[in-house]
Design brief:
138 residues, alpha/beta
Length: 138
């Protein structure tokens, strides 16, 4: 099975370290991880278009996370987006999903298992959507 291609957008080293630690517990062979500090770096990278999942860390304010996700989509990203927030806010999660995020969850409560489930769900949604679009074009 091909590894899931992830980009972690995290300006804060502490947040990034936590996510990398959780992914490490899941086994490196399952993920191809690329870490960038800003969305601009993610968009400028050749790998951006091939991402299965983009994790946007809590170093960005809520509205900035949503704007970052929307900008990435405008730049052609077909990735699933998972927003990792600083706190628990059910409304933020609802707004994030309405804006197109596959998931939104607080970083402080995140476990390896929860992260794996979210990444799998997001990657599967992305693959189905890409397949559907390709089928419609044919």
């Amino acid at each position: 099975m091909q590894p899931t291609r992830l980009t972690l957008v995290a300006g804060e080293d502490e947040s990034a370290a936590r996510v990398v630690q959780l992914l490490g517990r899941l086994g490196r062979s399952h993920f191809e991880l690329r870490r960038v500090a800003t969305l601009e770096q993610a968009l400028a990278s050749a790998g951006a278009a091939a991402d299965d999942v983009v994790l946007i860390c809590c170093g960005l304010e809520e509205h900035t996370q949503l704007e970052a996700m929307q900008r990435a989509v405008e730049h052609g990203s077909e990735a699933a987006f998972i927003l990792l927030t600083a706190g628990v806010d059910a409304d933020h999660g609802r707004r994030a999903r309405q804006a197109g995020a596959s998931d939104s969850m607080p970083l402080a409560d995140l476990t390896s298992s929860r992260l794996r489930q979210s990444i799998r769900r997001g990657a599967n949604q992305r693959r189905l959507e890409v397949h559907r679009i390709a089928h419609v074009r044919d």
